[in-house]
Specification:
By secondary structure, the chain is an alpha/beta fold. The protein is built from 18 helices and 31 strands.
């Protein structure tokens, strides 16, 4: 399964990198929006009479390649000789990564303050070339970034040869590799979760070669979890041998020019009886809390790594990484953060996502509050725009407070997935304009105010349009949602050409398809009956009472008879047990994995896995070790397998539901069943199979 996914990810990325219409080329402007952009005249251009000189900076060959590729095949008989020069210059006041572009007669000159600035100058000039009309827009450009670190991330290392064109022309200067399997993911021989490299060290060697050739054009971050979802051994903060192994692994990675290591415990630290419990008995004997334990591990890492790698950044993503979502200003989160901060060295960043997991607005008040909870430590902002209830954010919807560029707050991390999931790319990559462009950041102004100065768009109407997009998450009625989407599509058309609305077009296509698709609704029967979970399916509820449903192929068609799957569901309202059964036709003896996904109203989603060979597996994303009291029995039949399941509601209360949550008559849960790779209850969103908006429904 992992091998297949690795190939898919690589193929997707290659296709994105190779597609000329998915790069930020000619739109009449340069993007991300420069600090100063003064357009001039449109001049004819021919590759045959254009010379390109890039020299004196490490990424010169890559810059020349980008420009030559953009000019390749462009011929205009009216073109005059043109000279394009990219040079290092001290005229940019020494601002890191800054650049200027000037046209003077038959010469266009890009001056960069450093290696990256030179490459960005080449990327800006390339964007001015209009291949379709064999011409070039002249312009005067001055540009420099607001935030020094601008990362995108995914679960595999992109082939380095794609990085210059795919990242740097967007002025993205960092790539982060996330991992969620084990704390040993930093080990040299660790096998990456996805991607084409056999080990972490193999991928780091490829990156290091690229880094040295380009003079450090792209920074690399490694972001493993301290507690992974597939740990063979859980990390023990009191075990010095484990800490030494973690330090050794981090050192072996750092020597390959890794710029930043983020250690994460986000989403995997459970709260039990008002505390964050210790994982191992030794921790409880040694530390007063898990906050102190985590701080100690980071202090050991810093003290061991800093002397040898003084430029390496270290950050820690804690359990309570938000304010509201984790009640960070109340115990146990408040005490955890305070004890964490007391142990952390001053130079270790604390990672947060704002007031909520996917915060659309970051305010000065929220930042001051969170920093007060972590003893004034510097923040590393992890923005989660793709998690806002399925609504993609436009850069103008990300209102940071004025002064966000303060050094303590100015490091920015974009949770992008833009390298492997085309549906996210317009939003994830276009909002880097926000962290690049400081124009208009004055007191009492938001980004919308600044954007209004840069683009001839009615700010009030555009703001209303964005508010309309955000309001979609409050509309449960699918017909009303579809009508709202059509209205928003008309509204978006009026802004086309002034702002980049490709993010919305991709979002509209997906959401409108979901809103108008046939969603299976299962009217769940309920009563006092029970089933004996033995896999025989001979109980009364299966014969006479349970509501049936069938799985279909992912294109909506019926599977062959030898793969047919019939499910049934019944709710014992007195004992509060959800009973499910499946009759699975299977023409091959190989085991298959089944996945159930529940989305109770107003709660996080819950996923349960089991295998048809009788081995049960459980997993829940938000809790470190959730072992629900559910029963699963599989029985081999002449045609395949029977599966019988009893899931007490209390098991879900322990994981995702409120403690007093009841299933009420008229209530609806999102519900999806997946068998293997291509069989589902509800036809999945083709852009995102995990999109809960495309799930079916259990109607009680």
């Amino acid at each position: 399964m992992k091998t297949i996914l690795s190939v898919i990810c690589s193929v997707i990325f290659f296709s994105l990198a190779a597609a000329p219409d998915r790069t930020p080329f000619f739109s009449g402007r340069v993007f991300p929006e420069p600090v100063t952009f003064i357009p001039g005249e449109f001049i004819p251009v021919s590759a045959s009479v254009t010379t390109i000189e890039c020299d004196g900076f490490p990424a010169a060959n890559y810059a020349a390649e980008l420009l030559n590729k953009r000019l390749d095949g462009v011929e205009n008989p009216a073109a005059k000789p043109l000279s394009v020069k990219i040079v290092l210059s001290e005229k940019n006041d020494g601002k890191p990564e800054s650049y200027t572009v000037e046209f003077d007669g038959n010469t266009v000159t890009g001056r960069g303050a450093d290696n990256r600035g030179c490459y960005y100058a080449a990327a800006a000039i390339a964007q001015l070339i209009d291949r379709a009309n064999a011409g070039m827009l002249t312009a005067k450009i001055e540009d420099y970034p607001l935030c020094s670190n601008r990362y995108v991330t995914d679960y595999f290392l992109v082939q380095p040869q794609f990085m210059p064109e795919f990242f740097s022309q967007w002025k993205i200067n960092g790539y982060a590799v996330q991992s969620a399997l084990s704390w040993r993911d930093l080990a040299p021989n660790a096998k990456p979760q996805f991607g084409s490299y056999p080990t972490l060290e193999a991928s780091l060697k490829a990156y290091a070669e690229f880094y040295e050739k380009t003079g450090g054009l792209i920074d690399l971050m490694l972001a493993p979890r301290l507690y992974g979802f597939q740990d063979a051994e859980k990390f023990d903060c009191s075990n010095e041998e484990m800490i030494d192994r973690l330090i050794a692994d981090a050192k072996s990675a750092a020597k390959y020019h890794v710029a930043h290591i983020m250690i994460r415990v986000d989403d995997v630290v459970p709260e039990v009886d008002g505390k964050y419990p210790f994982i191992h008995p030794g921790e409880e004997k040694r530390f007063s809390s898990m906050g102190q334990a985590h701080g100690y591990v980071m202090k050991r890492l810093y003290n061991a790594l800093h002397p040898e790698f003084p430029g390496l950044k270290l950050s820690f993503c804690p359990g309570p990484y938000t304010i509201d979502s984790h009640r960070a200003d109340r115990d146990p989160a408040k005490t955890y953060l305070a004890e964490l901060a007391a142990e952390l060295p001053d130079d270790v960043y604390v990672v947060w996502t704002g007031r909520d997991v996917g915060t659309p607005v970051m305010t000065r008040a929220d930042t001051d509050l969170y920093q007060s909870l972590i003893g004034g430590h510097k923040l590393f902002t992890w923005h989660n725009p793709t998690m806002l209830a399925g609504v993609l954010c436009h850069p103008a919807d990300l209102d940071f407070y004025p002064g966000f560029e303060l050094p303590a707050d100015g490091i920015f991390f974009a949770n992008a997935e833009g390298t492997g999931k085309d549906r996210n790319r317009p939003a994830d990559l276009t909002y880097t304009a926000y962290v690049w462009n400081p124009a208009g950041y004055v007191k009492n102004e938001t980004y919308l105010d600044a954007a209004a100065k840069l683009n001839p768009v009615n700010r009030k109407n555009y703001g209303a349009f964005l508010s309309g997009v955000a309001s979609l998450k409050t509309i449960d009625n699918r017909r009303e949602r579809a009508e709202k989407l059509l209205a928003l599509k008309d509204a978006a058309a009026s802004f086309d050409g002034f702002v980049n609305i490709s993010w919305f077009n991709a979002f509209f296509e997906r959401e409108y398809a979901n809103a108008t698709a046939d969603i299976p609704v299962i009217n769940v029967s309920s009563g006092p009956l029970n089933a004996v979970v033995d896999g025989n399916l001979n109980d009364e509820i299966w014969k006479y009472h349970a509501a049936p449903f069938r799985l279909a192929l992912d294109d909506g068609s019926e599977p062959p008879a030898g793969q047919a799957t019939v499910g049934r569901v019944y709710f014992n309202s007195e004992a509060e047990i959800l009973f499910l059964s499946f009759e699975i036709n299977q023409s091959t003896p190989d085991k298959e994995e089944m996945l159930l996904s529940f989305v109770p109203t107003g709660t996080r989603s819950c996923n349960l896995w089991f295998d048809t060979d009788g081995n049960t597996k459980t997993w829940f994303h938000w809790v470190l070790e959730w072992k629900p009291e559910w029963k699963v029995k599989t029985v081999k039949t002449a045609n395949g397998f029977n599966v019988e399941i009893a899931l007490p509601l209390q098991a879900l209360r322990e994981a995702t539901l409120a403690k007093d949550e009841k299933i009420k008559t008229g209530g609806k849960w999102g519900f999806q069943v997946q068998r293997g790779k291509n069989m589902f209850l509800a036809k999945p969103n083709p852009h995102d199979r995990g999109d809960v908006g495309s799930y079916g429904q259990l109607a009680f």
